[in-house]
Amino acid sequence: MRVSIITATFNCSDTIEDCLSCVQNQSYHEIEKIIIDGGSTDGTLEVIKRYKDKVDYWISEPDRGIYDALNKGIRMARGDVIGILHSDDLFADNFVVETVVDCFFRNSVDSCYGDLVYVSRDDTKKVVRYWKAGEFKREKFKYGWMPPHPTFFCKRHIYERYGLLNLNFPLAADYELMFRFLYRYNVSTAYIPKVLVKMRTGGTSRPGSYTVKSVLENYKAWKINGLNYPPTMLFKPLLKIRQLIPNNGPTI
Predict the structure, then answer these.
(1) Structural class in CATH, domain 3-243
(2) Residue 213 pLDDT grade (very low, low, confident, very high; cuts 50, 70, 90)
(3) Three-state DSSP class for residue 207
(4) Residue from 72, 77, 66, 97 nearest 197 by CA
């Protein structure tokens, strides 16, 4: 089973090497590495070029934002499974991809996900938020639940069948995609009860960034996918607050 890992980059010279290195150090070696850069000018491309022998495909050109870049990568991917690793992010250990592949085989599913921790930008061993995803129950979507998108791995044929990230959702395309796959189309999934990804704080997704616009986008995601249900999206920020409670997660 080949796994495509897609990374969107833009002026991230301070973090991209850690991202590339953690993929290179994975115990599982059937990995296709794809980098979609938005036209960086800060030295990011120089770092990528140092890893060119370990990267299967990379391109640097203007795009319409991170979701547009990820869609480009998904279209290019030739792996059986597709995963996303943002330029600020790290796999939690060297066995993440191996664990994911084992999950697909053991559970005979079309997707899987795990837990995520937010870590200090300057000290990736310091956990500041723990996102424990928990076992999948379809009805949990009605109360603001979603898997952490950076831990979400999905078979390529699901993207081909049900579509890519919807660029009409500039803040919540990841939520809409997972809602579409897991709720609307009942794509099979499995929960891996361990931390798969470490996300640095200060990136595009931050604790406390839940705004009126994102609430409306989440509700719009329901509507376009055929769910007419009272707006319970206010539960979502409460779930995020719980993730900030001290001692609510592991020490990495």
Answers:
(1) alpha beta
(2) confident
(3) coil
(4) 97
